[in-house]
Amino acid sequence: MAASASSFTANSFLQPINSTRSIENNNKKTLLGNQLKDSSFFLGSAKKLYMKKPFSFQNSKSRSNGVYAVSEVVKNKKLNTDSPLSNLLITKDEGLELYEDMVLGRAFEDMCAQMYYRGKMFGFVHLYNGQEAVSTGFIKLLKKEDSVVSTYRDHVHALSKGVPARQVMSELFGKTTGCCRGQGGSMHMFSKEHNVLGGFAFIGEGIPVATGAAFTSKYRREVMKEADCDHVTMAFFGDGTCNNGQFFECLNMAALWKLPIIFVVENNLWAIGMSHLRSTSDPEIWKKGPAFGMPGVHVDGMDVLKVREVAKEAVARARRGDGPTLVECETYRFRGHSLADPDELRDPAEKNHYAARDPISALKKYMFENNLASEAELKAIDKKIDELVEEAVEFADESPHPVRSQLLENVFADPKGFGIGPDGRYRCEDPKFTEGTAHV
Amino acid sequence: MAAIIQGIGAATALTSASSLDTKKAFFSNSRRSLSVGAERKGRTFVVRSDGGLSYGLNGRGGRAEQLITNAVATKEDTAAASTSLKPGHELLLFEALREGLEEEMDRDPAVCVMGEDVGHYGGSYKVTKGLAPKYGDLRVLDTPIAENSFTGMGIGAAMTGLRPVIEGMNMGFLLLAFNQISNNCGMLHYTSGGQFKIPVVIRGPGGVGRQLGAEHSQRLESYFQSIPGIQMVACSTPYNAKGLMKAAIRSDNPVILFEHVLLYNLKERIPDEEYVLNLEEAEMVRPGEHVTILTYSRMRYHVMQAAKTLVNKGYDPEVIDIRSLKPFDLHTIGNSVKKTHRVLIVEECMRTGGIGASLTAAITENFHDYLDAPIICLSSQDVPTPYAGTLENWTVVQPPQIVTAVEQLCQ
Fold it and tell me: Which ranges form a coiled coil (chain A) (predicted)?
C-alpha cells in the first residue's frame, strides 16, 4: 500500500463537495495510481483489466494496474459554463420536469409523515427526504419499458417511475385501490404497468431480482431475437447493502454477462444507526465497480444535474449492450431511518451540513441563475404538487378497505395451487375461497 | 429402534422372497389430469431386488441403499391384451427429466435453465446433459456459485417474462437461497397484489443418499413447506418425473420439484406420446383394502419392498405416492382412508414439522371419523444424517419398520 509517486488528482473523479467522510485521505487515493491516462470512452474501461504483469504479492501495487477510476465527463461539462447557451446541462423543460419530480417526492414524503402520525398508516415507513436527486436524476431518464428495483425506501422511486401518487398513498393507507391492492405496504411497492419490480424490504435481495430483469433484456435480444429490446434495469440500494454478499455476487454476474443494469448506491452514510465508516473497510463503494470489471462512478447525490449526467452515460452504456455500471451517489436522508426512529444518534452538525445542500434548493438556484425558470413558474409547480398530494390523500382516505374475499386471492397465480379438497374438486372452486373464509 | 431390530427377520424374509409379484394395475382418475395424450394405462412398478442382500444391522450385510438403487421400475403391460401395443421407450429417471425439460424448451423459447454446472458440464446428475450445445449458453446458463443471487436472478427473470428452471446442484445448497425462495418466490405474487407472476421451477437432487454426509443428505421438504405461495412435488419414477417436470414448467406458480439422488438411475418404459401430469394429484401405486400407506420419493420403494412381505403375510395394503407435497391431494387420500380406515405414513422427511406431520394433521382434520386406529407416521430420525452407513440406515425408515407398523395398525 505504499503511496505511489503520483497522487490521485482530485479532478479525476467527482469529488463530493464538503464531504464529511474520510475519503480525502490521500493514501487511499494513491491506491488508484495514475491509471487514468487511458482516456476511455466512458468512466473507466474494462478493456485493460487483465493483469499486465504477473501478480506478485511483494508488489501489491501491480494489483492496482487494473483499477480504473472515472472520467471527467461530468466535471468537464460542468466547468464549461462560459457559453451558457450551448453548455447548460438541461433545457428549461427538462429542468421543470426534474424540479416537479423532486418536489413531488418531497411533498409526498412529508405528507406520509403527517398521515403516519395521524394514524392513517402503520408499520415501518421509511422516507426519502433529502435523496430526491438520486431518484429523479436516474429514473426520469428511463422509458416505461425499463425496470426499477428498489428497497424498503421505495415510495419516491415508484413516483419517479410514473406510478400515480394516489395509488402509492392508497397502498400506504392499506386500501384496495393501492398499487398492490393494499397487500404490499410501504416497503413493497410494485407496478407491472410501470415496470417497478418492487420494493424489497430485506437488504440486498432486490439486487438479484434486478439482475434477473436485466438478464431478461439480454435474453430477449439474443435468444428470442427481439433486436429492439434495449431495456435497462436500475437497482437502487444503500451503503449498508454494499457489505452484503448479494451485492458482490450480482456485480460479478452482471459484469460477466454484460447485463444492461445500473447499480445505484444511495450512500446516505447511515445504515440505521451504523455509520458507513464504521462498517466498511474501504468506504469508497464506487471502487468496487472496477474490481469487477465495470466502471465505478462517484457522484454528488445532492446535485440532480450531476446525477443525471452520470446516469445518462450509464443508461447509454447499458442500452448499447456494453454492460453494467456502478454509481455511488453521496446523499443524505433528512429524516430518521424510519418514522419510528427518533434520530438521536446522528450529529446535528452533520445534519445541518447536508440540510444546507438540499437538492431541491440547489436545482432551484441553478434554474434561477441560468434563467431557466422564474419564481412564479416554480411556485406554480409547488402548488400543483401540493394539490396532487392532497388529492392523493383524499383518494386514499375515501377508498375502501380490502374486503374479506380478497384474502385468498393472489396467493397463487394459478389458484389450483391450493390443491384438491376431499370432495375431489379444486379447493379454490369452493365458495369459501371466493369469500375468503376458507381455512388454508 | 426396537422396531428395526424386531424387523430384521422380516427383512430377511422379504429379500429372500423371490417372486416379482406384479400388482393389479391401477389407473387413477384422469378427470383433472392435464394429460396430453397421456398413456396412464397398463402401468405398474415392479421393484426388483437383489435377493442376496440382507438388512443385517451388524454391518456384514448389504445396505438398503444398494437394494434400492438396484430397484428397477418397469412398465408392466398387464393391460396389453385390451389396449393397442404402444412401444414407448425405456429410459432412466434423469433422462426422463431431461426429456421433459427439452420438450418444454422446444415448445416455449421463454423456458431456460440456470444453475451451477448445468451447461457445459451437463449437470451434476446429467439432467441437463446436451442442452447447452443445443440451446446455447444463455438458455442453459452456467452460473457462478452464488445460490442466493442466481435464484433471485431467476425470480427477476420470471417476473419479466421468462420461465426459468433453477437447478440446485444439491437441494441442500438452496438453503443459501432460502430468502429468495421464501420472500420473493413465495410471497411476491401476493405482495404485488397479483401483478407479477413467478413461474419458476426450482429443482434438484435431495434426500439421503449413500453416505454423503449431513449437509448433502438433507430432507428439505419440511423447511420449504410452510412458505406460502409455492407448490412442492416429488418425483419417484421416470414416468412421473417427466410428467411433473413438464407440468411444473407450465405452471404459473413457483414449483419446487424434489428429485432423489438415489432414484436417478431407475429405469422405466414411458410413452412416446407427449404427456403432462397433474401437479396436485397423488398417484395410486398399489390398490389394497387393509391399510393406506402414504409415501413419496424414495420411500415409495421401501414401502413396495415391505408390501411384498405384507402380501406374503396376508395383508393387502394400499400404497399411494402422494407426489404433491404441498398441497395434498385430499381426494385420493381421503378416498383411501374411507376405504381402509387405517393410515401409515412413510417418509424420509424430518419427524418434527415434516410432511408426515402435516399430512397427519390434514387427515385428522378431514377424515377423523373414518379412522379405526391412530395414524402412524414413520419419518426419518431428527438427527443430522450421519456419515457411517450403519447409522445412516438407522436414520431413514427401513422396510422392516414398515412391516411392523402395518402389523401393529391392523391388529
Answer: 371-398
Least confident range of A31-35, A334-338, B317-321: A31-35
* Three-class SS of B162-226: CEEEEECCCHHHHHHHHHHHHHHHHCHHHHCCCCCCCCCEEEEEECCCCCCCCCCCCCCHHHHCC
Give the gap in angstroms from C-alpha B220 to the nearest C-alpha of chain A.
19
Q: What is the 3-state secondary structure (H, E, C) of chain B?
A: CHHHHHHHHHHHHHHHCCCCCCCCCCCCCCCCCCCCCCCCCCCCCCCCCCCCCCCCCCCCCCCHHHHHHCCCCCCCCCCCCCCCCCCCEEEEHHHHHHHHHHHHHHHCCCEEEEECCCCCCCCCCCCCCCHHHHHCCCCEEECCCCHHHHHHHHHHHHHCCCEEEEECCCHHHHHHHHHHHHHHHHCHHHHCCCCCCCCCEEEEEECCCCCCCCCCCCCCHHHHCCCCCCEEEECCCHHHHHHHHHHHHHCCCCEEEEEECCCCCCEEEECCCCCCCCCCCCEEEECCCCEEEEECCCHHHHHHHHHHHHHHCCCCEEEEECCEEECCCHHHHHHHHHHHCCEEEEEEEECCCCHHHHHHHHHHHHHHHHCCCCCEEEEECCCCCCCCHHHHHHHCCCHHHHHHHHHHHCC
Q: Which domains does chain A have, with CATH numbers?
A: 10-73 (no CATH), 78-398 (3.40.50.970), 404-435 (no CATH)
Question: How many Cβ contacts (< 8 angstroms) between chains A and B?
Answer: 198
Q: Do A413 and B189 touch (CB under 8 A)?
A: yes
CB-CB under 8 Å, A411 with B228? yes
Residues of A in contact with B31 (CB under 8 A): 424
Smallest Cβ–Cβ distance between B281 and the set A180, A192, A420 belongs to A420
Closest partner CB to B149 (pick from A249, A413, A425)? A249
> Hey, are the CB atoms on A420 and B149 less than 8 Å from each other?
no
Chain B CB contacts of A209 under 8 Å are 152-153, 155-156, 159, 184
Through-space distance between the first and last CA atoms of chain A, rounded to whole angstroms = 61
Q: Which residues of A touch B281 (CB under 8 A)?
A: 420
User: Shortest Cα distance from B240 to chain A (angstroms)?
Assistant: 18
First to last CA, chain B: 20
For B262-304, how does the pLDDT look when each residue is reduced to its tens digit (9 = 90+)?
999 999 999 999 999 999 999 999 999 999 999 999 999 999 9
**Angstroms from B328 CA to nearest CA on chain A:** 6
Q: Which residue has the higher pLDDT, A7 or A362?
A: A362
Q: Active-site residue numbers of B?
A: 147, 216
The answer to whether the Cβ–Cβ distance between A413 and B194 falls below 8 Å is yes
Q: List pLDDT tens digits, range B135-187.
A: 999 999 999 999 999 999 999 999 999 999 999 999 999 999 999 999 999 99
The predicted model scores a pTM of 0.83
Q: Give tens-digit pLDDT for B190-241.
A: 999 999 999 999 999 999 999 999 999 999 999 999 999 999 999 999 999 9
B282, B294, B310, B291: which is closest to B370 by C-alpha? B291
Interchain proximity A414–B251, CB inside 8 Å:
yes
Answer yes or no: is the ipTM higher than 0.85: no
Q: Which residues of B touch A411 (CB under 8 A)?
A: 189-190, 228-229
Tell if the CB–CB gap between B366 and A422 is shorter than 8 Å.
Answer: yes
In chain B the domains, ranked by start, together with CATH numbers, are 2-37+282-409 (3.40.50.920), 90-270 (3.40.50.970)
* Tens-digit pLDDT profile for residues A36-53: 333 333 343 333 333 333
Give A-chain residues touching B197 at CB under 8 angstroms: 413
Please answer yes or no on whether B330 and A211 come within 8 Å at the CB atom: no
